[in-house]
Amino acid sequence: MKGLRKRIIQVILFCFTIGLCNTLLIAQELNFQWAKSMGGSSYDYGKSIALDSDGNVYTTGYFYGTVDFDPGTGIHNLNAMGYSDIFIQKLDREGNFVWAKSMGGGYS
Q: Which Pfam families does the UniProt entry name for this protein (predicted)?
């Protein structure tokens, strides 16, 4: 189980490093439970992903310009206030948008 969790995290981080800001959740059988994508008109990079005890998914990273962090039909745009800003996003266990926050400004 520990090795499987490590492999899942490696797969998710690989997806982030190739520039796809996709959030993936994989079952023990390695079948996709869900996959979501979000992004903007400029660069956006996912750096970390974590799960809490309720199965909620948290992603962090940084972005430039404007990004819609709601992977569903809604819109939740955040605007970088400087060169780039950092973000934290929360999705529920089903991959539905809960909230997203950003921080930065100036030449951050």
A: SBBP
